[in-house]
Design goal:
heterodimer; A: alpha/beta; seven-stranded mixed beta sheet; 14 helices; 14% strand; globular; B: alpha+beta; 16% strand
């Protein structure tokens, strides 16, 4: 059976060049980077190179990069750190309704301690409106946190414009760029943001490693307390091999950015063209203008059927996609993102997310559309719901 | 590694009794697409109260479809009284188990069948002990609406 992985927004396979660079850091250069003898210094050199490479990916300085255990940790660090460091100035944070749970659940946690949070609405394609942000800023606002690219519907937010609005009011700006790096150009000097969260495993690097970009001069307290690693800002013995892998993945992401974008958008367009022509009663969720969308993302609501059934049948045919719908295997409850852009629950229940990536081929696209057509037809035959009844 | 066991997957991939009986003796619908699952059952019942045929159509996840298939298999050939005794636990047992979060899907089948029998009882002037006090309009999705925060407590939707 053909195996076609189409969930690159969930995670990516680690590239062989990345694995190759990581391996010596498990075996030869296993030393603790804090140790002063040769094996320690070799490990430390790995961190230096990796920091340089991650910095180059977003046009930052190496000393502005702090490695973490994941993107979620970076998100937690910024929100909790700013809430603490600027508590004299205020206790108001602005974010959006379509953020990742790493942001939303951290905001809910902070609300327990008296932090006030405004969750901005988005338009029907998932865009945060700069005028809405402007209107929400108060005297006590200390941070704005808006994701760069939405993980479900692929919306690329106008971060530069939003950051300008925040800065015009003297408010710090954070963006969760976990889905963005390697998929859209990210240049901190152009975007003028203060904090960026990143993750390695979305850019063909290993799981268990992320990073926070923190603009020079901004001080926030630590999230993880302990030893003096990461220039005393993030304690815990460094995940040397993981960080080295992140560095290599970041280098490849920078060098291959345009070919990756071209490849992904071409295959995504092929996929959508065929699906749109060949499968009736569907709805594209997220931006219709693909230039404002993650290059590999499609989010499609299939009327009259339920997402998990589609996922299961595709899985039996070797195809991996994801669903944010009601009966999805791990998280019951419909998607907060589809809800925020106004997709009716009846349609959201039948939504699937497809993300193409570097290993996707044209043959994969044809196989997926052929299979999806059969699966949708079979499930619709089973369904008591139909267009005639108004659903 | 799979989410469901082989029996569940087999019923999901090759569901029995799919369709709709023309001029059924009883018809029941339970759930709604808003809640994430919905089942329609149609029954043929002979003069001896035996269910001679049962067909279903279901909108829902893998376990909802497998439960529908298994439940309709179970009640075919049963008397109406016996069919009313088929509980969701029985359906789960026959399927060899469902993940805990999916148990409610078997409720869907139990209720849709009960609704179809209720419809038969109403139109044929019959009474059954198993239907005593049964309210076909009592939805398990009482609190199910479009609001994300106040979803259905039993299915999480």
């Amino acid at each position: 059976m053909r195996n076609v992985y189409l969930d690159y927004s969930a995670t990516t396979p680690v590239k062989e060049q990345v694995v190759k660079e990581m391996v010596p850091y498990f075996t030869e250069h296993f030393g603790n980077p804090s140790s002063l003898y040769a094996p320690g210094l070799e490990a430390k050199q790995g961190l230096v190179t990796a920091r340089q490479r991650v910095a180059e990916l977003i046009n930052a300085e190496p000393e502005e990069i702090y490695f973490t255990s994941c993107g979620t940790e970076a998100d937690n660090w910024v929100l909790e750190g700013v809430a603490d460091a600027f508590k004299e100035k205020g206790n108001h944070i602005i974010t959006s309704k379509i953020e990742h749970h790493a942001i939303l659940h951290t905001c809910q946690y902070l609300e327990k301690f008296g932090v006030e949070v405004t969750y901005l609405d988005v338009d029907e394609e998932g865009f945060v409106r700069p005028e809405d942000l402007e209107a929400a800023i108060r005297d006590n606002t200390i941070l704005v946190s808006i994701m760069m690219v939405n993980n479900e519907i692929g919306t690329v937010e106008p971060i530069r414009e939003l950051a300008r609005v925040a800065h015009d009011h003297g408010v710090l700006f954070h963006t969760d760029a976990v889905q963005a790096i390697g998929n859209v150009p990210v240049d901190v000097k152009n975007l003028e943001v203060d904090f960026i969260s990143m993750s390695a495993h979305k850019i063909y690097g290993p799981k268990g490693v992320g990073a926070l970009y923190k603009r020079k001069g901004i001080q926030i307290p630590n999230l993880i307390h302990g030893g003096g690693q990461e220039r005393k800002k993030r304690a815990g013995t460094e995940n040397t091999a993981g960080i080295v892998g992140f560095g290599k993945a970041a280098e490849l992401a920078r060098l291959n950015l345009h070919s990756h974008i071209n490849h992904s958008s071409k295959l995504r367009a092929m996929l959508w063209d065929r699906i749109e022509k060949e499968i009736p009663d569907i709805l594209l969720n997220g931006p219709k203008d693909f230039s404002k969308r993650h290059p590999g993302n499609l989010n499609i609501a299939l009327s009259y059927i339920e997402g998990e059934s589609v996922l299961l049948m595709l899985d039996l045919n070797g195809i991996s996609v994801s669903t944010g719908s009601a009966c999805s295997s791990e998280s019951l409850g419909s998607s907060h993102v589809l809800d925020a852009i106004g997709v009716p629950v009846t349609k959201a229940n039948g939504a699937i997310r497809i993300t193409v990536g570097d290993n996707t081929t044209e043959e994969d696209v044809d196989y997926v559309v052929d299979t999806l057509k059969q699966v949708v037809a079979k499930l619709r035959e089973l369904s008591p719901v139909n267009g005639a009844e108004g659903w | 590694m799979a989410l469901y066991n082989d029996t569940v997957m087999e019923h999901f991939m090759n569901p029995r009794n799919v369709g709709e009986i023309e001029n059924p003796d009883g018809k029941g619908i339970y759930g709604s697409p808003v809640c994430g699952d919905m089942m329609q059952v149609t029954l043929s019942i002979d003069e001896n109260d035996v269910i001679t045929d049962a067909k279903f159509k279901t909108f829902g996840c893998g376990s909802a479809i497998a439960s529908s298939s298994m439940a309709t298999e179970l009640i075919k050939g049963m008397t109406v009284e016996k069919a009313l005794e088929v509980s969701n636990e029985k359906i789960v047992e026959e399927l060899g188990g469902l993940p805990a979060v999916k148990i409610h899907c078997s409720m869907l089948a139990e209720h849709a069948i009960k609704n179809a029998i209720y419809d038969y009882a109403q139109s044929h002037g019959k009474e059954y002990a198993g239907l005593e006090g049964y309210d076909p309009d009592a939805e398990h999705h009482d609190d199910c609406d479009d609001d994300e925060e106040s979803g259905c407590s039993s299915c999480g939707n």
